[in-house]
Design brief:
Number of domains: 2
Strand content: under 5%
Order of helices and strands: HHHHHH
CATH superfamily of the largest domain: I/LWEQ domain
Distance between the termini: 65 Å
Number of helices: 6
């Protein structure tokens, strides 16, 4: 989320820089969509990141499959690529703000990859736990019986000690 908010801030700075550079250009038509193109693109990235974070949280609870996380990570990557491409149109590539935006986009990509790999590790760990635990109800019933017998034997031993029996 931090990487996404930094990317959004960089997009806002690039958008304002773009407006300053193109202040004297005559436009065929004023279109608010294009006037704030980088900002709306960065909002799209932020929305994709939020969905990815929610999906990773759901994966930790075991509520969602790993493929959904991979698909959402792909959405984050494509929307980030669209933002970077849009920011380079009619922009000074040596601009401090443009370089900052490129760096933030790389940070988003790295963070997204880390989230996906963490979700995969958690999913693999959950599968291993499921493989270890017995699923046969007879085995589980026997284990519960053994536990109750051991508990009763412990209580009996404590009672003998309390009343002085050897």
């Amino acid at each position: 989320m931090n990487a996404g908010s930094a990317l959004m801030e960089s997009a806002i700075l690039c958008q304002s820089e773009r407006k300053q550079q193109n202040a004297n250009n005559i436009k065929y038509k004023k279109d608010p969509t294009w006037a704030n193109g980088l900002i709306s693109s960065s909002k799209n990235v932020a929305g994709c990141i939020m969905m990815l974070v929610r999906a990773c949280n759901a994966a930790m609870r075991g509520d969602i499959e790993e493929e959904a996380i991979i698909a959402l990570a792909s959405n984050v990557a494509s929307s980030t690529a669209q933002l970077v491409t849009a920011s380079r149109v009619r922009a000074d590539l040596n601009s401090k703000h443009q370089k900052n935006l490129d760096g933030c986009a790389k940070t988003v990509a790295i963070s997204t990859d880390k989230m996906v790999s963490s979700a995969k590790r958690i999913n693999d760990a959950n599968e291993k736990v499921d493989d270890i635990l017995p699923t046969n109800t007879n085995i589980i019933g026997k284990l519960e019986q053994q536990m109750s017998i051991l508990k009763l034997e412990k209580q009996l031993e404590q009672a003998r000690k309390k009343f002085g029996y050897p």
